[in-house]
């Protein structure tokens, strides 16, 4: 079908749009007759000969292709980060497949568009699972129970934690001197044995701490980088594109194209429980439709008008949980678990092309109406930040622990966001343009717009 269009356009440009001011009537008549002969031979006219095979029952000819693109971890070397942690496999499964078929549109006993209507149908699908690796720090089993007797600072020295309920002013504090262990502005008592008493542990914190997996790595010193995880990131998508090209008469040609796709992008899970902090899974979909009409008023005057509508939508899919963050440890909960986004565009455009002597004129305009709807609910059940400050010796670094503050239920900062309705954005865009290409000589052309 592409070859047919090329032949017709080439004939028009050579035979009719040469840029000459006038042509003798006999020469123009010969060019028109030649155009009719060529289009008849190409099967584009009502009096064209029947396609080969139609008389013996084979019907119109179609063409297409089927494809498959495959990647599999069995063909790859195991990545170094997997090997150094003792792993023997890194998941990689990708299948990208589809088909395309094109030809004349013929519906037996209903419609025969062998010479006037052509279609193209394409489908593509993706099925993908790729391993993503994480090396992170999570609380040790002892810390989850309130035992910080083995916890150390970055240099490996014991990290003492203090009882915030014992905070009191130091009557011997000298404000003229800097704060130090010998000149404290406030006093706090350390927890006996560097352990938080069981009765002081916050119930919600204990339940959350129990959902962490066991440490499985010794990559870092002092219990750091003690958790290594390999989990799959998934991508499932399906898309279809369809086009129909119909020549109604010599002057009128219509083209319709439509496309849609659906899919789910699944993030790689860091923790194997509901407190996993990785990004939410995302469902996405898109739709687009275009109707295009070309009106050939004369060999030198063509008008083209098009209507276009498209939409893109995304939606997060995750359970809403409180977000607890404590220093360098893996936090809990997902940001914006129920976020949604949708964009809609509606466009109408028109273009008029004229050839007048040595002038090639082009006038065009388009108008777009855009609609955007978004819903972001970042912390529907709260965002709680825990620091070492509330379990430290006030003013003294390398004391206190963020996770100890969490077990006591004492957040340094907290916020809650609630979106009761989506946000709506609307705008309109319009453009008008005109252009003239004037051929002064065959080798010298001036453009203006």
Written overview of the protein:
The protein has 449 residues and is mainly beta. Helices cover 12% and strands 46% of the residues. It has six helices and 16 strands. The strands form three sheets. Strands 1-2-3-6-7-8-9-11-12-15-16 form an eleven-stranded antiparallel β-sheet, with no helix packed on it. A hairpin with a 2-residue loop joins strand 8 and strand 9 (301-317). Helix 1 (2-15) packs antiparallel against helix 2. The chain is elongated, with a radius of gyration of 36 Å. The two termini are 34 Å apart. Mean pLDDT is 87; it is low at 1-24 and 53-57.
Provide the residue-averaged pLDDT: 87
Say how many strands there are: 16
The structural class is: mainly beta
Helical proportion, percent range: 10-25%
Largest sheet properties: 11 strands, antiparallel
Order of helices and strands: HHEHEEHEEHEEEEEEEEHEEE
Per DSSP, the total helix count is 6
For the largest sheet, list the strands in their spatial order: 1-2-3-6-7-8-9-11-12-15-16
